[in-house]
Amino acid sequence: MLIYALKRVAALVITLFIILSINFIIIRLMPFEIVGDGMMQQVRINMMRRYNLDKPIIDQYFIYIKNFLSFDFGESITLYPSRDVFTILKPKIPLTLLLNIMSMVIAIPVGLACGIAAALKKNTLVDHGVTFMVVLFVSVPSFVFASLMQYFLAFKMGWFPVTLAMDQTITLNRIHSIILPILALSFSGIATITRYMRAELFESLSSDYMLLSKAKGLTQIQSTVRHAMRNSLIPVCTVILPMFMNLLGGTMVVENIFAIPGMGTLTVLAISTSDFYLISAILFVYSLISLIAVLIMDLIYGLIDPRIRIGGGKEHG
């Protein structure tokens, strides 16, 4: 297991290096100047020296990689001039992670419950209702749900704040401020888990080992809980990681709708102001979070099924 974990960590480092390289190339190909032409010539020259932009592009690349691997993100150029990028980004990361984690905390149990109910009541009114919900949640983007809830539940009914007009700190008495964005982000996850759980559980219920368990004296409920549900959960786990990735992307839009001062809102501001170092740092953090999530899921798979960790290598025992 140790060798398997080390291989996965090495793969994470290599992938992060590739992402940073692509990030550098793409941003340098974008149609804007890192240091704008509108400022005085001497000031522009001084800023280019300060940010190593007067060096050859290959030297800039190696400086960029070295700084990022040491978590030196540089300074903001346009959005928050001369402020350290990490100090800008640091307070916004927990809020974005909170939105995503809370969305998954809601989506996973609700999706599992709906999928189980639909599988056990296949071709009944319950199954049809759950299927309609899945189609609705999959078809409608999260930002549409966010806008509708903001208008009806916040603006019309007054049950929630329309926007999060506050700093990044979320206290317990203010948690209601982010309920609507959490719900908007969770709908797609609920639909995904429900769909997979329904399909996997229904297949397990009609399998041969369920007949064998009943022949041994187990009741329908005992057979379902001990065997069918347990075997169905493993394939369902494979959709959690892609769901988390989609949430990270969806947060960017939902945060802007509710004026939440998280990473998503900061990303839009950084792109609109062509802030090179801030854009690079945000993409780095998004990539790092995603890669850490992939690593955790790989390790969990390796613990659940030993064939995964020994199938691609020569590890034994």
Overview in brief:
The chain has two domains: 2-79 and 275-311, no CATH class; 92-249, MetI-like fold, CATH 1.10.3720.10.
Describe what this molecule looks like in 3D:
- With 317 residues, the chain is an all-alpha fold.
- The protein folds into 2 domains: 2-79 and 275-311, no CATH class; 92-249, MetI-like fold (Orthogonal Bundle), CATH 1.10.3720.10.
- The protein is 73% helix and 0% strand.
- It has helices at 2-29, 41-50, 57-69, 85-89, 93-120, 125-139, 142-156, 179-205, 208-215, 220-237, 240-257, 263-272, 276-304, 306-311.
- Helix 5 crosses helix 11 (240-257) and helix 9 runs antiparallel to helix 10 (220-237).
- The protein is flat, with a radius of gyration of 24 Å.
List the helices and strands and how they pair.
Blueprint: H1 2-29, H2 41-50, H3 57-69, H4 85-89, H5 93-120, H6 125-139, H7 142-156, H8 179-205, H9 208-215, H10 220-237, H11 240-257, H12 263-272, H13 276-304, H14 306-311
Helix pairs in contact: 1-3, 1-13, 5-6, 5-8, 5-11, 6-8, 7-8, 7-11, 8-10, 8-11, 9-10, 11-12, 11-13, 12-13
Strand runs, count: 0
**What is the correct CATH architecture of the largest domain?**
Orthogonal Bundle
SSE ordering: HHHHHHHHHHHHHH
Q: Can you say what the CATH homologous superfamily of the largest domain is? A: MetI-like
Write down the CATH topology of the largest domain.
MetI-like fold
Q: Termini separation (Å)?
A: 8 Å
Please give a handful of descriptors for the protein shown.
MetI-like fold; single chain; 317 residues; 2 domains; mainly alpha
